Amino acid sequence: MKDNNIVHLGKILKESREQQNITLEKMALKTRIKMDHLINLEDEHFEKLPPKIFIKGIISKYCDICGLDKKEMLKQFDNYLIESAGSNNKYNKLFTEHKKIYPKWNLSKIFLIFFAIVVACFILWQVFNLLLPPKIELMYPGGDLTSDTSSVEIIGKVLRAKEFTINDQIINFDHDGVFNYVLALEPGLNIITIKAKNNSGKSSQIIRNVIYNK
């Protein structure tokens, strides 16, 4: 039950609308607000309406159309809510404004999010390594060459490789992929096959021809 000392906003809005000979249908068209909302407002069923700011919007449109004092009516509405909230809990939601509940950030949540990002990046990196073939960056020899020494030093870097070989000989490389290997040469033409293979079986290779003039 509403307190008789409280101004009946719905009644005022309804009487003002009727004095202007405006039906609910016309008011709905003018305000572009559903008729059910208008009826609930005039009947003061605020608990059936959207957030408080929406109700204030309807009241403002009523005032503009019916020539009421907008500032005074909105003030009366705020007073109405304060009085009603003290005696009826069903109006309490009008003060909450349907506020979004944002998560409370703390160190544990931040750590979990950071950990999840790291794991996701690691997985993406592994997938990336599987999709792409290994890469061989050969610094020396930069191309085919002729040598008068019995060996040639092969220097370079390999990326995304699980296995690395030179002429089918497994060659070690450091954590950055850098390798350095001295290959003995036979007199005449030496075909050097440098090959890398990744976990998915994809491979890359570079071939160098070295002629050893003994």
Q: How is the secondary structure organized here?
A:
Layout: H1 9-19, H2 24-31, H3 35-42, H4 52-66, H5 70-87, H6 93-96, H7 107-131, E1 135-140, E2 145-147, E3 151-159, E4 163-166, E5 169-170, E6 178-184, E7 188-197, E8 203-212
Parallel strand pairs: 2-8
Antiparallel strand pairs: 1-3, 3-6, 4-5, 4-7, 7-8
Helix pairs in contact: 1-4, 4-5
What would your notes on this structure say?
The chain has three domains: 9-96, Orthogonal Bundle (434 Repressor (Amino-terminal Domain)), CATH 1.10.260; 103-132; 135-212, Immunoglobulins (Immunoglobulin-like, Sandwich). Helix content is 42%, strand content 24%. It contains seven helices and eight strands, in the order H-H-H-H-H-H-H-E-E-E-E-E-E-E-E. The strands form two sheets. Strands 2-8-7-4-5 form a five-stranded mixed β-sheet, with no helix packed on it. Strands 1-3-6 form a three-stranded antiparallel β-sheet, with no helix packed on it. A hairpin with a 2-residue loop joins strand 4 and strand 5 (169-170). Mean pLDDT is 82; it is low at 1-6 and 89-102.
Structure characteristics:
single chain; 214 residues; alpha+beta; 434 Repressor (Amino-terminal Domain); Immunoglobulin-like; five-stranded mixed beta sheet; 7 helices
The biggest sheet amounts to: 5 strands, mixed
CATH class designation of the largest domain: Mainly Alpha
Unreliable parts? 1-6, 89-102
Strand order of the largest sheet: 2-8-7-4-5
Radius of gyration, in angstroms, nearest whole number: 41 Å
Strand content: 15-25%
Helicity range: 40-55%
Write the CATH fold name of the largest domain: 434 Repressor (Amino-terminal Domain)
Q: How far from one another are the termini?
A: 114 Å
- The number of distinct β-strands equals 8
Q: How many structurally independent domains?
A: 3
* Average pLDDT reading: 82
Order of SSEs, N→C? HHHHHHHEEEEEEEE
CATH superfamily of the largest domain: lambda repressor-like DNA-binding domains
Number of helices: 7
Anisotropy-based shape: rod-shaped
Judged by helices, strands and strand pairing, the structural class is alpha+beta
